[in-house]
Design brief:
Elements lengths: L4 E2 L1 E4 L1 H5 L9 H13 L4 E6 L12 H7 L7 E6 L2 H9 L4 E7 L2 H8 L3 H18 L2 E7 L12 H11 L6 E6 L6 H11 L9 E6 L6 H10 L4 E4 L19 H10 L2 E2 L4 H15 L7 H4 L8
Parallel strand pairs: 1-10, 2-9, 3-4, 4-5, 5-6, 6-7, 7-8, 8-9
Helix pairs in contact: 2-11, 7-8, 8-9
């Protein structure tokens, strides 16, 4: 499929990428990562998670980090929040957008947030309202939208029910999250088609958050694009995952996804050479090779004369 137009890639490596890594990355290195993303053309960065540091130790410096990030016109900083305390911290940290998580499956919702799904929806509606009063954009990620590590299959009807409730919040973006990386392209098309009647895309952008746990993340991103998704979470180097979902390793890599969309004729605004350099640098702080393939293979080869 050759296309034209634009897709928006949101880099989540400073948050979802680093939170599940074994290595503890310093605040200085997180700032260097963020600066590398900006130099590589990334304009939306999920930089921090405002959750309990005892639950997610890698995010313990989020408040400090957000005081130091470069404030540049056109660059938006997103913070993940789950409750009012987290939102208060995010607002104090001057985020441009608060990403609120609602979990479709009750079991995972209890493990991740300490409340069931319906209570989580009520919290999300209150948080979204508080965001708007503070002049901050609310977005919502519907987690375990394709499957749960504890309950297994998530019925499409359950997803639709939760999305309908969430849309009362009028989020600027609605992400479906494949938290454990179990979806295939047909699942993606089916579920986005099922929720489409309940999402006003004039005010709410459709987003996707895919993990590449079972090597289907890029195929799923392509499938999502074909049914109208315009915003994609990705993590530089393909690092990360969810610490509360067993074996949920590997986000799709920002540079690999950018290459795929670029070859399709879509504009991403990314400087892939710059991003590849930052990916290679990231191996140092992490102490391991990153999963992304583009930094190893390089861009499409130029013929030698």
């Amino acid at each position: 499929m050759t296309a034209s137009g634009q897709v928006n890639l949101i880099d989540v490596s400073p948050r979802d990428g680093l939170q599940n890594e074994a290595a503890t990355v310093s605040t200085a290195d997180k700032l260097a990562l963020i600066e590398g993303l900006i130099n590589g053309g990334v304009t939306a960065i999920e930089a921090a998670s405002f959750v309990s540091p005892t639950r997610v130790p890698a995010m313990a410096d989020s408040d400090i980090l957000m005081r130091e990030v470069p404030r540049i016109d056109g660059v938006r900083y997103i913070g993940l929040v789950m409750n009012q305390r987290g939102l208060d911290r995010a607002l104090e940290a001057r985020v441009d957008e608060a990403n609120i998580v609602v979990v479709v499956s009750d079991t995972f919702s209890h493990k991740n947030q300490g409340v069931g799904t319906l209570a989580g929806v009520e919290v999300a509606l209150d948080l979204a309202d508080a965001c708007r009063k503070a002049g901050v954009d609310p977005s919502v990620t519907v987690a375990t939208a394709f499957g749960c590590p504890f309950e297994g299959e998530v019925p499409v009807s359950r997803l639709v029910e939760v999305v309908k409730e969430v849309m009362v919040a009028r989020p600027v973006r609605l992400n479906l999250g494949d938290t454990i990386g179990v979806a295939g392209p047909s699942d993606v098309k089916e579920r986005y088609s099922a929720i489409a009647p309940f999402v006003d895309t004039a005010s709410t952008a459709l987003g996707a958050h895919f993990h590449n746990t079972r090597n289907t993340g890029y195929a799923n991103a392509y499938a999502a694009y074909t049914v109208g998704v315009t915003h994609f979470d990705a993590s530089l180097g393909g690092i990360g995952g969810c610490p509360f979902a067993p074996n949920a390793t590997g986000n799709i890599a920002t540079e690999d996804l950018g290459y795929m969309f670029g070859r399709m004729g879509l504009e991403t605004g990314l400087d892939l050479e710059q991003l590849m350099g930052t990916s290679r640098w990231l191996e140092g702080p992490l102490g391991k090779q990153i999963p992304a393939l583009l930094p190893r293979a390089g861009l499409f080869p130029v013929p030698h004369s």
